[in-house]
Amino acid sequence: MSDEFESEDFDELERQLREAHALTPRAGLQEEIRARLRPRWMVPWAGFSAAAAVLLAVVGVGLLLHSVPRGGGGGGDAASGASFGARSASGGAVASFGLLPPPDIHQTSGAAAAEPSLKTQDGIATSAGAPAPVAILPATALVYRYRVPGPSCSQDPNLRLGGDPVVGGAPCWAYDAAVPYGLRAAPSGATLAYVGVPDGSVTYYEPVYVLPSGVIESALTPDELRS
Amino acid sequence: MAPLNEFEGVYGELFNRIYAYVRAQLRNDADAEDVTATVFMNAYRAWGRYEPQAETPAAWLFRIARNAVLDFHRGAGRRERLLYVVGREREDVDDPAVMAERGLEHERLLGVVERLPDRQREVVRLRMAELSFLEIGTLLECTDDAAKMLYHRALRALREMLSE
Predict the structure, then answer these.
(1) Is this model's pTM higher than 0.80 or not?
(2) Which in A144, A217, A225, B59 has the greatest CB count within 10 A?
(3) Does ipTM surpass 0.90 in this model?
(4) Residue A21 is nearest to which of B20, B152, B162, comparing CB atoms?
């Protein structure tokens, strides 16, 4: 840069400019625009069959995990992660960051959910074949992403995997593959999904990766797994 | 490609700066709010294509904001808003008399900024939005030194215009 500019004193002018440009949004605008953005967080499903496969897979895993004793597996089973801390006080209507409300979708029928479409191999749930048709399947599902501790924010890290408990039945759905911090890297071609994992009287959503082959693996890092 | 979950952090970090940048170029709060919303909607849709190695989130988002403001001004019947920035609705009033006077000074200054040549006007606005010269250079497709020189030329021109 030319020295001629260095020698000029623009401090006062810059101060005035900064003042003139210090235009703050009204209170609440940020949240309003966030709310306007939220309906756009929809998942355009690639196709009925893929969605059906994922739906059935995660339902099956949820049911499978319901029957697996927890706490002594040494971190082996597919989604026996911690039950996460953040919970919605109101039960789902509030779709704020950090909370995962019950999915706003049609749930599959009890018969479909009970279909034993998965089996386990060394702690990994594996698809046992082509999924059966699902009668009710939405074209889109709401996407909820977790608030994560970023470089400029300091949210409670416990929020990042917070799930809103739902009672029984383990409804579950695949969400957009926005990988929260703290999860291991996604395998190639994997879709991040959340499975409903019953724990006592409530069910928590826990992250899994659905591989193109249909294999489902826990998306949690080993140290997130409950020992 | 940037993970989608990082968009929330960018949203929180840059929201106020984007709003101020947009608001300084528009006639009223309502327009600024609409354009700010458009910026973040466009940004969210494009986030999957954002390459962190190529530019900072701020530079990337301000590029979207620049385009959104330009699109707004291209709208029918809105061109006059580009030329006259008056009648702003400032609400941060402590002493009404003092604030009114200060507000008028700010309006005058912003109006003078509006009369700068395009690139000088843009460099001032981006600098006031706290972008580094490197980020500004990325946006204006020049080196950071060139951006700095452009900025100082703009300041010099502003000072001359204000003394008229």
Answers:
(1) no
(2) A144
(3) no
(4) B20
